[in-house]
Structure of Putative dehydrogenase:
Amino acid sequence: MERLTWGMIGGGEGSQIGPAHRLGSAVDGEFSFAAAALDHRPDAGRAYARSLGIAGDRAYGDWKEMLAGESGRADRVDLVTVATPNATHFGIARAFLEAGFDVLVEKPMTITVEEAETLVRLSRETGRICAVNYGYTGYPLVRQMRGMVARGDLGQVRLVMATFAHGHHADAADADNPRVRWRYDPATAGISAQFADCGIHALHMASFVTGQEVERLSADLASCVPGRVLEDDALVAFRMNGGAVGRLWTSSVAVGRQHGLELQVYGERGGLAWAQEQPNQLRWTPLGERTQIVERGDAGMLPEAAAASRVTVGHAEGMPLAFANIYRDLARAIRARKAGEPAPPALYPTAEDGLRSMAAIAAVAASGQAEGVWLDARPPMFR
Ligand code: NAI
């Protein structure tokens, strides 16, 4: 089977998320890495792309050069990943969608709800994929949780507790570090810092696993490090359209916590608990029984979870392989379209998911400013 080709914008040398995309896209041999504009400094981007094996004429200085170069090629890249700081996502994704490329955009998909609506419309009009990288939904045991909820193992879901609290931006002396600064600067991050950076992963996972969408929310925001305009800690209460009650805590000042993404789902007949730092074990407690550990790779996993698992039980499987599942889902969708076949069921997060997050961010920011007033968190487009 011929490989698809892949291009990347952002994710340059030393970036946080670039390596996980390069690993994830390469695992299954679905994509070959063919073009890139990796850095905001053109020369550094070109040099790093060359060092990663990209041909000189496809190691671009910036995304506009890449758009022009790739648009003019018969063998243009099949998928473009946008892994730049948030404020640039919309302009880049819109331009590539308009030119007929499929795109995978890092979260948050855009800065405003209106921009996100534009990407949803564009994706629908062009028939091109606009996916959003909620990459943790690629974990086998996250897909197991989703399948168990859908199968009815928990009965009606009553309560979801979503957490994404780390301690890596707690040091006031580090506030000027360029990789930290853009996250708290409204010009580059938008109206929210920590909730938009991490909280939306947890909120999206709550929806992904329960199959319910967030309807209303109330937020309590705090800026713990002096001088920060945007929040570095948030507590959000929410309600979902299937009746589930939601609680979410996100923080970047919880010293000692590392990654800190966790999801707990409690239903009438049992409870599930999973944590990103121990992704190969899922705790399942049926009502009135002892807690069981579901091991990734063990017999009896649901088919969608087993299909997402790559190595045998007992061996560590981690985050780049979760990203690999998103890339494999995208490869299948792109191949189906190229073959004129119907799209396979999609587990990758879509532009609609990205839009829902943007509406939640807007509601969190507004509620936080209004002392926690409850607000509609649905995108106007879906009300
Ligand atoms: P970073 O600051 O570590 O790296 C950003 C990279 O983008 C740098 O290499 C920089 O030179 C490059 N860049 C900046 N502007 C550019 C432009 N106009 N054209 C080309 N390259 C450009 O940032 P990080 O942490 O890697 O975040 C990037 C994006 O990924 C953000 O949107 C962030 O929210 C998201 N992210 C997602 C994660 C996930 O788990 N899905 C985890 C971490 C970040």
